[in-house]
Amino acid sequence: MKAFIFDLDGVLYRGSEPIPDAVETLLALQARGVPTYFLTNNSGLTREQYAHRLQRMGIPASPEQFMTSAWATARFLQSWKSDACLFVVGEPGLREELHASGFRFTKNPETEAADAVVVGIDKSFSYERLRLAQYALLSGARLIATNADATYPAEGGRVLPGAGTMVAAIQTAGGADPFVVGKPNVLILDLLLQEAGMSRSEAFLVGDRLDTDIALAKQAGVPCALALTGISTRAEAEALPAELQPDYIWDSLKSLLPLLDK
């Protein structure tokens, strides 16, 4: 393998709290010269902001090491309709990534038509945003979801609503099925590998969710490990058919270090 690809929420940290052994493991990999990359469905921040978050935790990182669902969504939209006008339900990080890629926004699809409704995690989600998204979809806009994660792990062992809850509400109101850019869609992994100049055979994926991280790895034929520090449990993993189970199940990220000596 050429590089390790890590999820962020639930693997390296929960909210602002680093997960035990995560920082030490990443530093050990870097000390050995092993390339590390980061693949997250969370669209709340830009790649630069995620790099700064890891830097504050003591992990050297640069934006080029990150593939976020926000950046991947911008790439997908460029291939679909590069001059699209978007109605966005999401955090500032998503808007910044889309704006940097040259997309126009509409704040009111009733007065300026939207080509697509783009939905990510939105901590200010409201009935009014739901209503406007519904109007855009019923008027012919396409529904694009950065991801469909129902939850994400936070500090103190808490679990909070994820982007999937907003996507489900808008999908229900507008009667439109979303195109989901993020994991488990292999698109987001292939974009990362393309940027890194790697093939699937050179990567190893570490995540905390069976329905996104591990499902993606299995679809792509990439070896993978489930970290039991986030959402999914050992019992849930072992209940899956053998062909869908992760190759490894780890209580701690430091369990990966022996793989380097094989």
Summarize the SSE layout with pairings.
Elements (H helix, E strand, L loop, with lengths): L2 E4 L6 E2 L2 E2 L3 H10 L4 E5 L6 H10 L9 E3 H12 L4 E5 L2 H9 L3 E2 L10 E4 L7 H12 L3 E4 L5 E3 L5 E3 L1 H12 L4 E2 L5 H11 L6 E5 L2 H11 L3 E4 L6 H5 L9 E3 L12
Parallel strand pairs: 1-4, 1-13, 4-5, 6-7, 6-8, 8-9, 9-12, 13-14, 14-15
Antiparallel strand pairs: 2-3, 10-11
Helix pairs in contact: 3-4, 5-6
Give a structural overview.
With 262 residues, the chain is an alpha/beta fold. It folds into two domains: 146 residues, 3-Layer(aba) Sandwich (Rossmann fold), CATH 3.40.50; 99 residues, 3-Layer(aba) Sandwich (Rossmann fold). Helix content is 35%, strand content 19%. It contains nine helices and 15 strands. The strands form four sheets. Strands 5-4-1-13-14-15 form a six-stranded parallel sheet, with helices on both faces. A five-stranded parallel sheet has the order 7-6-8-9-12, sandwiched between helices. Strand 4, helix 2 and strand 5 form a beta-alpha-beta unit. It starts with a strand and ends in a 12-residue tail after the last strand. The mean pLDDT is 95.
